[in-house]
Design brief:
This is ABC transporter ATP-binding protein. Belongs to the ABC transporter superfamily. InterPro entries: AAA+_ATPase (IPR003593), ABC_transporter-like_ATP-bd (IPR003439), ABC_transporter-like_CS (IPR017871), P-loop_NTPase (IPR027417). The chain has 302 residues and is an alpha/beta fold. The chain folds into 2 domains: 5-216, Rossmann fold; 219-282, YebC, transcriptional regulation domain (Alpha-Beta Plaits, 2-Layer Sandwich). Helix content is 35%, strand content 28%. The protein is built from 11 helices and 13 strands. It has a 6-stranded mixed beta sheet, sandwiched between helices. Strands 11-12-10-13 form a 4-stranded antiparallel beta sheet, with helices on one face. A 3-stranded antiparallel beta sheet has the order 2-1-4, covered by helices on one side. Strand 11 and strand 12 form a beta hairpin. Helix 3 (92-103) packs across helix 4 and helix 4 (108-116) crosses helix 5. It is elongated, with a radius of gyration of 23 Å. The two termini are 22 Å apart.
């Protein structure tokens, strides 16, 4: 399948600072792609390159089959990079009408996008009176004005309260279900895990993984609560190898086929260890993220 966004060896340098270092990523048609990384990892810089706001230092970048920033590419791309900026003393409606005129978009499209982001009732209020969540939704509305094929959103839930985050996640899921392709950046692991099909993880300017969310989370594991825990750790490490057994809060996380649960339970009991809890678990995306960004791993995760 041809990618809508294809980046190879992307590098961006500001003087002695290497903001983006050899990034490769592919965004496929119809998916919601999460670009995940801590603040300062290079997410916004990459998205600014993809929208033609800045030029890369080196590397190959193709968006919708063309060069970022060209009129034919911009005509099929909607974006919200960093905080949305509008005229503060104009209403949300008038701000969108002004943008629609610049973009040569029919006026009826303004009403359509206001409905999409659930802002119709407050559309005549001044932008300066909007809450942060309303400002973010108006930014998404502006990104959708041209009915774009590709939507690029930079930290769309940044600064929102829980209700605002919930509404924004719902909106992004709806965009994906409508057949649009969505590329969003985030430092919020739960957000990406809930709404994205695939995720690329960036740390210190370098991509450390790119996979389907479920593939990143990997196979099921066993969580075991046993006492004494250190003795249980020793027994399990002897059976499975030290790399398969990890301390997890007051439990042990064991990377093993869950079908072996009975065998492991028996071995622990025979060693005089009391097992009070044993169940299957899937690694959360949070676990994968911290494993990758703290160990400096640069390879795929299965």
């Amino acid at each position: 399948m041809d990618a809508l966004v294809e980046v190879s060896g992307l590098t961006k340098r500001y003087g002695d600072t290497l903001a983006v270092d050899g990034v490769d990523l592919r965004v496929l048609p119809g998916e919601v792609y999460g670009f995940l990384g801590p603040n300062g990892a290079g997410k916004t810089t990459t998205l600014r390159i993809l929208t033609g706001l800045i030029a890369p230092t080196s590397g190959r970048v193709r968006v919708l089959g063309g060069t970022p920033g060209r009129p034919d590419v911009l005509g099929k791309t909607g974006s919200m990079i960093e905080s949305p900026a509008f005229y503060p003393y104009l209403s949300g409606l008038d701000n969108l009408r002004l943008l629609a005129e610049y973009a040569e978009v029919p006026r009826h499209r303004v009403d359509e996008v206001l409905d999409l982001v659930d802002l119709r009732e407050r559309s005549r209020d001044r932008f300066s009176a909007y809450s942060l969540g309303m400002k973010q939704r108006l930014g998404v509305a502006a990104a959708l004005l041209k009915d774009p094929e590709l939507v690029i959103l930079d930290e769309p839930t940044n600064g929102l309260d829980p209700a605002g985050m919930r509404d924004m996640r719902r909106l992004i899921r709806e965009l994906g279900s409508d057949g649009r392709t969505v590329l969003l950046s985030s430092h919020l692991l739960g957000e990406v895990q809930q709404i994205c099909d695939r995720v690329g993880i960036i740390d210190a300017g370098r991509m450390v993984a790119e996979h389907h969310v479920e593939d990143l989370r990997g196979e099921q594991e066993l969580l075991i609560r046993a006492a004494p825990r250190e003795s249980a750790h020793s027994v399990l490490s002897g059976l499975l190898g030290a790399d398969a057994v990890h301390r997890y809060d007051d439990m042990l996380r064991v990377q093993v086929d869950p079908a072996r649960a009975a065998d492991l339970n028996r071995a622990l009991v025979e060693a005089g260890i009391a097992v009070s809890e044993l169940h299957t678990s899937e690694r959360a995306l949070e676990d994968v993220f911290f494993q990758l960004t703290t160990t400096g791993a640069k390879s795929d995760v299965g």
